Amino acid sequence: GESVGLHLPTLSVQEGDNSIINCAYSNSASDYFIWYKQESGKGPQFIIDIRSNMDKRQGQRVTVLLNKTVKHLSLQIAATQPGDSAVYFCAEILNSGYSTLTFGKGTMLLVSP
Amino acid sequence: GAVVSQHPSWVICKSGTSVKIECRSLDFQATTMFWYRQFPKQSLMLMATSNEGSKATYEQGVEKDKFLINHASLTLSTLTVTSAHPEDSSFYICSARDLPGHFNEKLFFGSGTQLSVL
C-alpha cells in the first residue's frame, strides 16, 4: 500500500505556459533515458528519449535535457495544454536494449485553462 | 504503432481467490514481457521479466509462487495472483519488447489492470 507521507511532486501551470519537469536519476552508468506520460488509470506512454552521448533532444513541443555531471534529466513542454495534465516519469536504462527500465518517482503536471 | 492489449482493465475479487491478467502483443512478436506493479501516487516497480519459453526472472522481494507468470507464446504472457489478499490490491501493468537488443523505445505498455481484493 501507500507509504505514509509519500506523495507525488506536483507542478501546476496555466495553459499556454512552458513547463519544466525535473528528474534525478540514480545510476551514473545508465546510458539511455526515456520520459513517459501516464494518465490516470492508463499505462505509460512514450514521449521522448535521449542517449547518454547527447545532452539535448527536441521533439514536437517537448525537449529533454540531460546533465550527466549531476545525474539530472529534465523535460520541457512548450505551450502546455490541458491535455498534457498527467503524471510524468523519467526512466533510465543501463546497457541499452538489454536491461530493464528503472522508473523515477514521477511528477504530476496539472494544467489549468 | 505497436499495441499491447491487457485484460481485464479492472477486477474485484474476494480474498483467497486467484486472478489471472493477460497481456497480448497484437501486431508484433514479444520475446520479452515485463510485469510492473504500481501503488497509488507511486512509481512503477518491476516485478518480473518473462521470456518466451523460459521461466520468468523475478525481482528481489517478489514471491514467485504468489505471482505466477507464464509466457507460453510470443504474443501472450499471463500474470496470476494466487490466493489474493487485500495488500495485493494494486495497478498491474505489462510491457512488451518486440525484438531483443533493441533500445527500449520499442517497449510498449499495456493499459493496466486495477486489482481490488476485498
Query: Which residues of chain B sit in consecutive blocks of at least 5 with pLDDT less than 50?
Result: none
Secondary-structure-based class of chain B equals mainly beta
Give Rg of chain A in angstroms: 14 Å
Largest interface: A-B, 28 and 29 residues
The count of strands of chain B amounts to: 11
Mean pLDDT of chain B: 90
Q: How many helices of chain B does DSSP assign?
A: 0
What's the short version?
The complex is a heterodimer of chains A (113) and B (118). Chain A is mostly beta strands.
Topology (elements, then pairings):
The complex is a heterodimer of chains A (113) and B (118).
Chain A (H helix, E strand, L loop, with lengths): L9 E5 L4 E6 L7 E7 L6 E7 L4 E3 L3 E6 L4 E6 L8 E8 L8 E2 L3 E6 L1
Parallel strand pairs in A: 1-10
Antiparallel strand pairs in A: 2-7, 3-4, 3-8, 5-6, 6-7, 8-9, 8-10
Chain B lengths: L3 E4 L2 E4 L5 E7 L6 E7 L6 E7 L5 E2 L8 E7 L2 E6 L8 E8 L9 E3 L3 E5 L1
Parallel strand pairs in B: 2-11
Antiparallel strand pairs in B: 1-3, 3-8, 4-5, 4-9, 5-6, 7-8, 9-10, 9-11
